Every structure is written in C-alpha cells, then in structure tokens.
Amino acid sequence: MTAATVHVELPGRAYDIEIAPGLLAQVGQFLAPMGGRKHVCIVTDHNVAELHLAQLQAGLSAAGLTSEALALPPGEATKCWAELERTAEWLLAQKVERGDVVVAFGGGVIGDLAGFAAAILRRGVRFVQIPTSLLAQVDSSVGGKTGINSPMGKNLIGAFHQPALVLADTALLGTLTARDFLAGYGEVVKYGLLGDARFFDWLEQNGPALAAGDMDARVRAVTRSCQMKADIVQRDETEQGDRALLNLGHTFCHALEAATGYSDRLLHGEGVAIGCALAFELSARLRLCSQEDPSRVRAHLRQMGMKVDIADIPGDLPDADALLELMGQDKKVLDGKLRFILARGIGEAFITSDVPRDAVLTVLTDALAGR
Ligand code: GLY
Q1: I want to staple 102 with a disulfide (CB 3.0 to 4.6 A). Which of 9, 127, 166, 213 is the partner?
Q2: Residue list, ligand 1 pocket, CB within 6 Å
Q3: CA 313 → CA 259, 263, 264, 370, distances in Å?
Q4: Which pLDDT score, from 0 to 100, does residue 341 have?
Q5: Range list of H helices, the chain
Q6: Residue range 112-133: average pLDDT?
Q7: Of 139, 234, 245, 254, which is best to mutate to test ligand 1, by the most ligand atoms within 8 angstroms of its C-beta?
Q8: Confidence band (pLDDT; 50, 70, 90) for 329?
C-alpha cells in the first residue's frame, strides 16, 4: 500500500486523512482549494522546523501560497498558557481571519496547542494537521482533541475542534529516533489490542519490517490505526462512551507518567505500551481473558525492543499504593470510580468501572517486584 485516504464522517465537520510518503511536496495542492487568504500561518517547533519547514514552505509556494512560521520550543512544557497566548497573539498579528487555515506542523504537542489556538481564535478558525511523529499520525492529529496542560494535570484545558484535513506524510517518520518511533508504535499496537485481533496478528508478522523502514508497512499501519480511530470518533466524538476505548493502557500510563514527572524517563507511547500489558495482565487475573493474552502482548512488545514492564523504567518509582493514588487523579475518574479499559481477549476491549481496588493493587505490587 503506497497511499490511502481515510474519511472522518462527522456532520458539518467531515474531513479526510491523507496518508502517503512525500505529501509535503503536494501540500499546496491540498490547501489551495480550501479557500481563505493565499498566506498560510504555520505553527511548529524548532526541531521540526530545522528538519522539514523548508520542504513544507516549498510545497506551499509551488501552489502559489506564501507562508510564515512560528517555531515554539519542543517538548511537553510547551503545552502551557504562556505558549498558547504567544501562539494566539502571533496568529492575530498575522491577521488570520475566520476563513483562513492554520497549519499545525509537528508532533502531538504542536497539534494539541495549535489546534486549541485555532479553536479559540476568532471563536474558531479551521486548521490542518500535518503530524510529523508516528504518535501524532496514528492518534493525536485525528479526532479533534486539542488543548494544553494545567499545573493540576495534563490536557485539562481544551476543546473538541476537528481539523479540516490531516496530511500524514509517512516519509517524515524516517527522521524520528528509534525511541520516538517505537513510542508511537505503542499506540499502533493499542489499536490491534482494543479492537482488531487480525491487525495485531499482522503487527506480530510485520512490526519488525515496519520499524526497519518498510514504507508499505508504515502506510498500512498508519491507515488501519486512523481508520479505527475515525470509526470510534464517528460513533462518539466527545467521549460519552466508546471513545474511552482509545484509552486502553492509559490509566496505568498516566500514573506512571505522573510518577516519573512527565520526564524523559518515560515517553507517553512507552507508558501506553506498558499500560496495555498491565491492562491485559489485570484482565487475565480477573479471569476475563486467558493468561496467554498478556503473554502474547508482552512477547510482541519485547520482540520490538520496547519497554514492556514497570522494571524497564529507569530510576525509582513510588510503591503500589502511591501509584493507585495517582490513578485516582486521572481525569478518567467518574464519580470517584476508576474507569478501566479491560479485555476479554486480544481485539476485545471494553470499558468498566467495576474493578476491585485490590486486584489493581496486586497487579501493581507484582509488577513493581518484577513478577
Ligand atoms: N487519544 C485518545 C483520544 O483521542 O480520544
């Protein structure tokens, strides 16, 4: 597979996700027909700007579009009020109008921040996501969750604001470090685990080639992931129900991220992978799925050279009680009850608030002890 389009059908907010290597060169052809001024405002970060901005701007000018870019510091700390203010004021200074299109060019941080700035600017302007990380291509650029972090927690300030178009240029994945690529792959595996056992089988067969650079495999994996996310978002855009399935592994992940101070010790996608393994372990202990399922999940993550266990996180961690306490601060808590995504097997995840606290504590205690 060399190229694909996934359509997200939402009333009045439908859009396409284009997936192929080399899309940056064609970006002008996609943006020019969208209307608005022939001047495009790009929000990016310094790393992405250095690697790819010239290519993006050349792609725009090939279709007669001029552009200006704001490059922000890379990293999660950029998802804050100060950078949001800077971005919104810059867009206003660039005279962005209602009919214009703002481009978010980067990973999840830039997509979330620029998307939120677009959501609140002039009560909402359109934006195009051009995700440059695997995590952003398969998850954060799709589905319209935008926002910033608060000192009280991650993503607590934000809005649902769907992009007008997503361009996932899979050639850009070639400049990711192996660690960043594999962290994004954690989200890819999540899709197989939550709802498509055949996709997980396929990943077991093709994951190593995909990581080594096989472009057809990359396009196929990004496409299947986006298709699954689009299906879920179409059913439940604002997470009243099914969309929470996308949070498989995330309750554990958020506690581990908080315990490691949202630092380089644990990337989000790494936490998702460990969290998925723990969610399957918990499901097996509750006799919802067979013990073979968590073993298979762990074997695949291990085969890919990924972090699998809590013990793979460098440095000290708090005890199981403290981790459970951190889970309770997650925004997925409803009426004080922890909401988990568990599984009846690979590809058969479901949402439940009915998880005995002791079972979670035992899984965490054993994981911390390396059992
Ligand atoms: N990343 C989870 C969601 O978009 O709902």
Answers
A1: 127
A2: 139, 143, 145, 243, 246
A3: 11, 11, 10, 12
A4: 96
A5: 27-31, 46-48, 54-61, 81-93, 108-120, 134-135, 178-195, 197-212, 215-235, 250-259, 268-285, 292-303, 320-328, 357-368
A6: 98
A7: 139
A8: low
8-state DSSP, 33: G
**Percent of the chain, pLDDT > 70?**
98
3-state class of 290 per DSSP? coil
Q: How many CA atoms lie within 13 A of 248 on its CB side?
A: 32
Report the residue count for the chain.
Answer: 371
Quickly tell me which residue has 């096989």 as its tokens: 214
Q: Is 155 a catalytic residue?
A: no
pLDDT higher than 60, residue 357: yes
Residue range 234-245, pLDDT digits in tens: 999 999 999 999
Q: Looking at residue 262, what is its pLDDT?
A: 87
Q: Which of 26, 8, 70 is nearest to 171 (CA)?
A: 26
List 52, 79, 149, 247, catalytic entry: 247
Q: Where is pLDDT greater, at 12 or 330?
A: 12
**Which residues are CB-contacts of 159 (< 8 A; sequence separation ≥ 6)?**
116, 119, 120, 146, 147
- Residue 351 in contact with residue 274, Cβ under 8 Å? no
343, β-bridge pairs: 349
* Residue 337: pLDDT over 80: no
Could you tell me the sign of the dihedral formed by the alpha carbons of 307, 312, 318, 321, in that order?
Answer: positive
* pLDDT of res. 125: 97
Could you identify the residue written with the tokens 């009020």? 81
Q: Which of 218, 220, 250, 332 is catalytic?
A: 250
**What tokens does 190 get?**
């999540």
- Mean pLDDT of all residues in 43-63: 98
Burial of residue 287 (CB within 10 Å: 0-12, 13-18, 19+) is exposed
Output the pTM of the full model: 0.96
DSSP string, 109-177: HHHHHHHHHHHHGGG--EEEEEE-SHHIIIIITSS-EEEEEETTEEEEEEEE---SEEEEEGGGGGGS-
